[in-house]
Amino acid sequence: MDDHLPPDGRAGIRAALVKRLIAAQFPQWSDLPVTPVEADGWDNRTYRLGEEMTVRLPTAAGYAPAVDKEHRWLPILAPSLPVAVPEPLAKGAPGEGYPFPWSIRRWLEGETAATGRIDDLPAFAVSVAEFLLALQRADATDGPRAGAHSSYRGVSPAHYDDETRRALAALDGRADTARATAVWDAALKATWQGRPVWFHGDLASGNLLVREGRLTAVIDFGTSGVGDPACDLVIAWTMFTGESRHAFRAAVRQDAATWARARGWALWKALIVLTQVIDRDEAQAAVQLHVIDQILADHDT
After folding, report:
1. Which end of the chain is more exposed for a tag (fewer CB within 10 A), N or C?
2. Stated pTM of the model
3. Do the first three CATH levels of 10-108 and 112-300 match, i.e. the same topology?
């Protein structure tokens, strides 16, 4: 039964629930098929509605505020951006045993940006940088200031200082925690002095869509907001390397202090994930250790 969501949220969301919500609130689309998408996220479950729409449902209360935020701001941001972003078509209300607001968007064609789908990664890195610069130029007046709704992306990485220190202590002897501590301390000292600008908050390969190897859309603005854009540079270490990282860095044109905070954001996430996987997923632990090594090397240069 999917009438009530269980504690993990995701398990209670099924196509049958989505069909009931559509029938009750948007009967004009009730005859359209509802099918799961191939690549789904964690914060939200997404279903395709017919051929031209998607239904997106938060899996927990903490993700629900993104529905109103994206519904309001994505249409305002879209004209300023060089690639497509989700287009809200309708906003649903809690019902049928589902407790959160939800949304219907226009379907965006493309595949997630796995590096194997991109022939020219340095050129792709430049297009990602151009997207970020366009986002930062968008009018931030009255935009949602960074805070809980953005999982504190856009504020100082100091928000996660206690969590990071605990991770460093837990990984002592299993990672280069002395150098990592120096990177973290440098991030905290590099205080943000700029004007508030728009940031995406979760710029990762899974939120970038490509067609024929080119960036065509950026999705999932659930952690977006207005504040410090340093968090959007994390992709420099999680997706780019070598020539593509250099291309991204040159094109995105951020100052040294912003890069120091970005290293802090990237390090925080890698450390937290590493503490969760180091004893149970050797492959994922190796990925996080590699990211940490790249961050430390970048700090030392």
Report:
1. C
2. 0.93
3. no
CA distances from 204 to 115, 175, 239, 264 (A): 12, 24, 7, 16
Tell me the C-alpha distance between 139 and 285, whole Å.
40
Domain 10-108 has CATH 3.30.200.20: yes
Q: Specify the DSSP class assigned to residue 146.
A: S
Name the more confident of 6 and 78: 78
d(CA 292, CA 228): 22
Quick: pLDDT tens for 238-290.
999 999 999 999 999 999 999 999 999 999 999 999 999 999 999 999 999 99
**Residue 2: per-residue pLDDT:** 38
Question: What does residue 199 show for φ and ψ, rounded to 5 degrees?
Answer: -130, 155
CA–CA distance, 228 with 260 (Å, rounded to integer): 12
| 112-300 CATH fold | Aminoglycoside 3'-phosphotransferase; Chain: A, domain 2 (3.90.1200)
Q: Do the strands 225-227 and 208-211 form a parallel or antiparallel pair, or are they unpaired?
A: unpaired
Query: Six-digit token pair at 20?
Result: 């009931």
Taking a C-beta distance cutoff of 8 angstroms, is the pair 171, 278 a contact?
Answer: yes
**Predicted local confidence at residue 101, as pLDDT:** 97
The single-letter code of the amino acid at 226 is V
Domain spans of the chain?
10-108, 112-300
**pLDDT at residue 38, rounded to an integer:** 78
Structure tokens at 214: 């080119």
pLDDT in tens, 164-185: 999 999 999 999 999 999 999 9
Task: Tell me how far apart the alpha carbons of residues 215 and 195 are, in angstroms, rounded to a whole number.
Answer: 28
